[in-house]
Amino acid sequence: MTRLKTMREKKQTSTFAKVTKFVIWTMLILTIGSVVLTAVMSVM
Fold it and tell me: I need a surface site. Which of 3, 16, 34, 38 has the fewest CB within 10 A?
């Protein structure tokens, strides 16, 4: 589904890539932060 949309909308691929990268980085930071918080709480 997404591949067909990207193939049709070549103009929005750059913005779409930027948004996906931003979302992926935010998810990674949130997951790492939650893991660190849980580890600190368990240690405390």
Answer: 3
Residue 6 has a CB neighbour count (10 Å cut-off) of 13
What domain range includes position 15? 2-43
In the numeric block, the tokens 């779409």 are attached to 16
Task: For 5-18, write each residue's pLDDT tens digit.
Answer: 655 666 667 888 89
Q: How far apart are CA 43 and CA 30, in angstroms?
A: 20
| 8-state DSSP, 39 | H
Cβ pair 6, 16 in contact under 8 A? yes
Token pair of 11, please?
């103009």
How many folded domains does the chain comprise?
A: 1
